[in-house]
Design brief:
By secondary structure, the protein is mostly helical. The protein has one domain. Helices cover about 75% and strands about 0% of the residues. It is built from 10 helices and 2 strands, in the order H-H-H-H-H-H-H-H-E-E-H-H. Strands 1-2 form a two-stranded antiparallel ribbon. It is globular, with a radius of gyration of 17 Å. About 55% of the residues are buried. The N terminus is likely disordered.
């Protein structure tokens, strides 16, 4: 029993640290805590002896479930400051929900290496965006309309659901490149994270895992134990991140997080070769 406890203690500590950092970043940069929680939980599950073929699926699904309360907490903090764009929410909600549900259903049926490739590729491009001084680059004065305008949030929802992230990693750059002020883009991304995480979580909860070596206390691909540990910590840290977002140098924070993302991307892409 003592040996088992010692093995689990560093795993629990790593997951708690990732949950705190994920919640902080959800409020601070609008990128969604899943970008940290997924690789941390994947590594923790592997260290604990989970089937590597299932660990990433469970990490993605569990991360997505934890984003539901984190998004609510972060959105409330940003909304109090008037940094949620209702017009974008109304235009993007339906396509982003459809994309998220489709992404979770697809991810439930593919090999873990495909999920790792998607995560690693998007994380790499996100890292480059954060490292380079592109914060003031604007491609057009407003978000596009029509089918093209709907395709953007649908793609964001689908890719985010496959990565287990809240969507801010993709939606914040998309909005700022189309003229949305960065602070309003961050706040809006927090609410969009809720429209991504709820349908995606439903998809993962009802995924058919018959015969799969999922960990104990797992429904579909969602680890209830992981959710119970991560969700309260990330929920409590998100408002702090929202407050810090208006007091710290975002360029330095963005560059530091970009460097971290490069390491995450490298590990995930390496995982596709394993």
């Amino acid at each position: 029993m003592a040996e088992t406890t010692i093995q689990w203690l560093p795993v629990l500590a790593a997951v708690l640290a990732a949950a705190a950092a994920g919640g902080l970043l959800a409020g601070l940069l609008g990128v969604g805590g899943g970008i940290i929680i997924v690789p941390a939980l994947d590594l923790a599950l592997t260290m604990a002896g989970a089937d590597p073929g299932m660990a990433l699926h469970v990490a993605v699904a569990t991360s997505m479930a934890t984003i539901v309360p984190t998004s609510i907490s972060s959105t409330r903090a940003h909304a109090r400051r008037g940094f949620v764009d209702g017009a974008v929410i109304r235009r993007w909600s339906l396509p982003i929900v459809v994309g998220a549900l489709a992404g979770s259903l697809f991810a439930s049926r593919v090999d873990a290496r495909i999920l790792a490739m998607v995560f690693g590729t998007v994380a790499m491009f996100s890292a480059l965006k954060m490292l380079l001084p592109l914060d003031r680059v604007v491609l057009r004065p407003s978000l596009p309309g029509g089918l093209g305008g709907a395709a953007i949030p649908a793609a964001i929802g689908a890719i985010s659901a496959m990565m287990g992230i809240g969507g801010g990693t993709l939606s914040v750059p998309a909005m700022t490149l189309c003229g949305e002020p960065v602070h309003k883009a961050v706040g809006t991304a927090a609410m969009l994270g809720l429209w991504i995480s709820v349908p995606a979580t439903v998809g993962y909860l009802f995924a058919d895992t018959t015969g799969a070596a999922v960990p104990p206390w797992t429904v579909g691909y969602v680890s209830l134990a992981g959710f119970a540990v991560i969700a309260p910590v990330s929920w409590s840290m998100a408002p702090l991140g929202a407050r810090l977002a208006h007091a710290l140098d975002r360029r330095k924070l963005s560059a530091a997080f970009g460097a971290f993302l490069l390491l995450v991307a490298a590990r995930m892409l390496y995982r596709t070769l394993a």
